[in-house]
Amino acid sequence: MTVGRGTAQGGPSGDSFYMDWTTAWEEAGMFAVFSHGNSGPRCGTAGSPGEFESVIAVTAVDSEDSLASFSSRGPGTNATGFSVNKPDLSAPGVDIRSATSTFNSQNDANYAVNSGTSMAAPHVSGVAALALSINPSLTVTQLRELVKTAVDQNDVPPDNGRGGIGQDECGGIRYDVFPNYHYGTGRINAVKAVEAALALRKA
User: Fold this and answer.
1) Are strands 89-92 and 56-61 parallel, antiparallel or unpaired?
2) What is the per-residue DSSP string for 59-104?
3) How many other β-carbons are positioned within 10 Å of the β-carbon of residue 188?
4) Cis amide leading into 157 (omega within 30)
5) Three-state SS at 172
6) Suppose 60 and one of 4, 6, 68, 158 were both cysteines; which one would form an S-S bond, judging by CB atoms 3.0 to 4.6 Å apart?
7) What is the mean pLDDT of the segment spanning 31-41?
8) CB within 8 A of 7, min separation 6: which ones?
9) What is the CATH number of the domain that holds 150?
10) Is residue 193 within 8 Å of residue 146, measured between CB atoms?
C-alpha cells in the first residue's frame, strides 16, 4: 500500500473533478489524505476533494488543540461519492516548522514556519505510514478507520475568528460532541495508531 497526501482544498463543495482519480487510487491500494481547506471559520465551508468518501480530510488545530479560525468546517456534501461527515479528523496545523523551497531553488536546507490545513494533513500521512510499518497487511479501509479512531477527543472551543463569525455548532452538532463538523473524530494520536496497528497484527 502507498500513503499519499493531497494538496489543500482543490475545489468548491460538491466538485467531483478528482473523483475518478481518487477512486482509482483506492482500487490500487493507495491511501489518500487531503487537507480540508482554509475557508473557515463558517460552517459548511468544506471543499473537494476532501469531501470524497474515499479520502481522509484533515483540519488544523493549534498547540492548545483549538480549531484554527482558517480551517474549513463541515458538513460536507451529501451526494453520491461524497460524505457529509467531514472533516474526518484534525492534526497540528498552526505555526508548524517545515521544509520549504522555491522553484529552481539550490538550497535544500530551507525551513519556515507556516500555518494551514496543508500543514495538518502530513501529520496524518506520517501516522498512517507509521501504522503500516507496524502492520503492512492493513487494507485501505482498515487504515482509514484506524486513523479516525486513534485520536484524542479534547473539548477545546474552536477559534471562531474575528467577530465570532464561526459557530460552536455546525450541522446541529456542537464541537464537544464527537464526531462533529469541527474536529471530526478528534485530534490524531500517533501512539494510539501504533497500538491499534499492532493489535490488528496480532488478531
Assistant:
1) parallel
2) EEE-TTSPBPTTS-------STTB-SS---EEEE-SSEEEE---TT
3) 27
4) no
5) coil
6) 68
7) 95
8) 34, 35, 118
9) 3.40.50.200
10) yes
